[in-house]
Design a protein that fits this description.
alpha+beta; Penicillin-binding protein 2a (Domain 2); Beta-lactamase; 6-stranded mixed sheet; 5-stranded antiparallel sheet; about 20% strand
């Protein structure tokens, strides 16, 4: 028989155990079910972290598909401070490899955080050295490394990428397309200290789209080469050249000095990063007389042959006396532009009137951003006519008291070249996916018809005279007509409130060939130390760039024009040149002199390359390939001889094979 007291004790113990297990079960249920999400988040924060995996950035290419910005595989180093064994030892071992102070590394490793980045996007060789340390608590995540294979080339247009995306230029403007879709990875350790990264890619990244610019890498190179040489030679504060196709508004080149290497952008200053062609307005000076001429001709205020008295080089308006650089008497309006007469321009401006002039200025796009698509674009300075003084119209007639950007100026000259139609500057041609398939194309866009086509043709002939017989003669390109205008703008001295006599902005703006423009360009030097006239400093740069670009574009000289072929030796006395290496040198004559090479069947571009080392002049007629030549092949080349080349269609009835032209554009660097 069981003792009743024992039974009572057993029942009491069972009740206690039931209550205990019930309470424990309830507590476990509360923690496992009710507070599951909250506690899981706390555990994640303590032992792991979700990290963003950056996608491979889309490439940036030029108009022919040449790479300007690419991405390569790389790794970023992180630490989990709780898993680091000896922070002092690890910091001392890492410091010489990463070239970082020991104290900084020690601070990261003892921060108490669950996760900390040490260095992003390591060089593969450095990453391998860190991995060889086999230190616990250190790990790597894949992060693409942005590379700029052409270094400084087009740096201000391309911009650069930082840790958080594009920071300048096209990298910033098109960051959404280039960046792609980021992924996620779970970085941490379990209760036993084991890494869980390897199998915990929560969401893979998706590569970004590519962007094709309108920039031409070869034209960009030629422009940068000449601008760099001029910048160093003149010791100018800044220098730039902006080139555009006037038919489409395509920006072909933006060359700026000083510049920077986007692969190491932190070694340059913010001033060096700035795309001055769109951010830095300047007073254009006499190049703006072209806008005045366009307005006055289109409004019927003046004709090229109207005679204007230039007051022997000085005119006084509103108690201010404005001088010409030379004393002139009677001039036709064409001669006013040809000789850049301030007095003549002021008289035409006064005849045109304030409001009409303002309407034409704004119609040409001044006073508003061009809409090229890059951040930081300036609208320039153009006050409303209601705020003009008695001196404003006269001074604005000669390009003072207003400011413009280089891109605005090139777009305006392109409008004259394009029959009076203003095109919106275009920097991006298309976007494409990782397989090269086009996703979106951006077509040229006409903004408005600014002046009548007949006015544009008349003004073009006047601008050709500026180069042929006027202040712009050093911008001439042998074999091609150049239309353009020089500019020499003084800068306002902030101390005196007057225009300084020191060299200010020297420029030349124009387009070529004048009868069928393919290239419009502005060249500008800011405060050169040893030049004081745009005609002497900027015009020759236009000629040097234009000559190379027209050859590259395979644009034949005018029929019957003698073209002086400059040999590399002659060119090297000024600035380094792209060497054109002939594939067929001239055979020497038995008497020891050079002989005329065989040119039949060659494209003009190739024929000129073959003749370049011989220092001869070339007269060209027709279009296509060489069908006749004089002197005949093998003839001794006499000093001063002119080689006459007759061009014609090839056997397929084509002027120039498209494949050859495309190849010539891609293989010139």
């Amino acid at each position: 028989m069981i003792d009743p007291g024992f039974r009572t004790r057993v029942l009491l113990l069972a009740a206690v155990l039931a209550v205990a297990f019930g309470t424990l079960g309830a507590r476990l249920g509360w923690l496992q079910v009710v507070r599951h999400g909250e506690l899981t988040a706390i555990a994640e924060r303590q032992y792991s972290r979700t990290v963003t995996l950056h996608a491979q950035r889309g490439p940036i290419v030029d108009r022919n598909g040449a790479p300007l910005a690419t991405s390569a595989a790389a790794e970023s180093l992180f630490a989990q401070p709780r898993g680091v064994g000896d922070p002092v030892r690890v910091a001392e071992r890492l410091a010489p490899i990463l070239d970082l102070p020991v104290a900084d590394l020690h601070g990261m490793l003892t921060s108490g955080k669950s996760f900390v980045w040490i260095t992003r996007r390591l060089d593969p060789r450095i990453a391998a050295r860190v991995k060889a340390l086999r230190e616990p608590g250190l790990g790597f995540l894949p992060e693409p490394l942005r590379l700029y294979p052409n270094r400084e080339l087009a740096a201000h247009v391309i911009g650069f990428e930082g840790v958080d995306g594009g920071l300048e230029g096209a990298e910033r403007a098109w960051n959404a397309e280039l960046a792609g879709t980021p992924g996620k990875a779970l970085v941490g350790r379990d209760a036993l200290g084991r890494e869980v990264l390897g199998e915990r890619i929560l969401q893979p990244s998706s590569a970004g789209h590519g962007v094709m610019l309108t920039i031409d890498r070869t034209i960009q190179y030629v422009a940068e080469r000449e601008i760099d040489a001029a910048w160093r030679r003149t010791r100018a504060k800044t220098a730039m050249a902006v080139a555009m196709d006037p038919r489409t508004g395509d920006v072909l080149a933006i060359a700026i000095r000083p510049t920077f290497n986007p692969n190491a952008f932190m070694q340059a200053s913010g001033d060096d990063w700035r795309n001055r062609a769109i951010t830095d307005p300047f007073e254009p000076g006499s190049t703006f007389k072209v806008i005045l001429a366009a307005a006055a001709l289109d409004a019927g205020v003046v004709t090229p042959d109207d005679r204007i008295y230039a007051e022997n080089g000085r005119i006084t308006i509103a108690r201010a006396t404005i001088h010409d650089w030379k004393k002139y008497g009677w001039l036709t309006f064409a001669e006013v532009l040809q000789n850049s007469s301030n007095v003549g321009s002021i008289k035409v401006g006064l005849a045109l009137g304030r409001d009409p002039y303002y309407r034409y200025i704004t119609a040409f796009g001044f006073g508003a951003p061009t809409g090229v698509g890059l951040s930081g674009e300036s609208r320039g300075l153009l006050r409303d006519p209601s705020r003009w003084s008695a001196l404003s119209l006269p001074t604005m007639s000669i390009g003072q008291e207003l400011s413009v950007t280089a891109l605005q100026m090139v777009a305006a000259f392109s409008a004259v070249a394009n029959g009076g139609r203003l095109m919106q500057p275009r920097l991006v041609r298309a976007t494409f996916d990782q397989h090269g398939r086009e996703l979106r194309r951006f077509e040229p866009r006409a903004v408005r018809q600014v002046i009548a086509p007949e006015t544009a043709r008349t003004l073009t002939r006047m601008l050709v005279r500026v180069v042929d017989s006027g202040t712009g003669h050093k911008a001439a390109i042998s074999g091609h007509e150049v239309a353009g205008k020089t500019g020499t703008a003084q800068k306002l001295d902030r101390n005196t409130g007057r225009y300084s006599r020191a060299p200010g902005v020297l420029s030349f703006a124009g387009f070529t060939p004048a009868d069928d423009p393919r290239l419009a360009m502005l060249v500008m030097l800011d405060e050169p130390k040893n030049e004081k006239w745009g005609s002497e400093a900027a015009a020759p740069i236009f000629s040097a760039i234009g000559r190379e670009v027209l050859r590259y574009l395979d644009i034949a000289p005018r029929d019957g024009e003698a073209v002086q072929i400059v040999t590399p030796a002659v060119r090297e006395r000024t600035v380094p040149a792209v060497r054109l290496v002939s594939t067929a040198a001239a055979e020497p004559d038995p008497t020891g002199g050079p002989a005329m090479p065989e040119l039949h069947g060659r494209a003009l571009r190739h024929a000129l390359q073959v003749l370049a080392p011989l220092g001869v002049k070339v007269a060209v007629s027709g279009r296509g390939r060489v069908v006749m030549q004089e002197p005949r092949p093998g003839t001794l080349i006499e000093p001063g001889v002119t080689a006459k080349l007759t061009l014609g269609l090839d056997e397929r009835g084509q002027a120039a094979p498209a494949g050859r032209k495309a190849a010539s554009k891609k293989g010139s660097l």
